[in-house]
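User: I want to check something. If I give you two sequences, will you return the structure for each one separately, not as a complex?

Assistant: Yes, each is folded on its own. Here is the first sequence with its structure:
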Amino acid sequence: MVQRQAAWRRVVGTAISAGISTPAQRDLFGAHTYERVDRPGAFHTEWTKLARNSNAAGVHALN
């Protein structure tokens, strides 16, 4: 993820410019679960908590 951060930001920026919601925006604004294609079930990720923990560990995942 860290190695592909610039590309990820371009994709998210393009999506937002086109008015397309991204998973992170969806979670921020109230959707709490998502499905994965690699395993069954509903999943929830607390993105802001994950970012805080990553930054505290010295990984700049969302910066």
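And separately, the second sequence with its own structure:
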Amino acid sequence: MTAYTLDAIPPLRLPIRVPGKVGKAYRSGANLTLGAPTGSDTWERFLTDRTTGA
């Protein structure tokens, strides 16, 4: 998965700290799914479709 990600995303990454309650929620993982993943696409397929324009 890492190889696909590095091929699809530019290497420039900037650390951005979001302040306040929203930032605290993001840092604690409140935006992530806790249960079983849903859907049928894989990360690899998403990146392939995104980079090939499919």
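Because they were folded independently, the notes below concern the second chain alone. The chain has a mean pLDDT of 80. The helical segments are 2-8, 20-28, 43-52.
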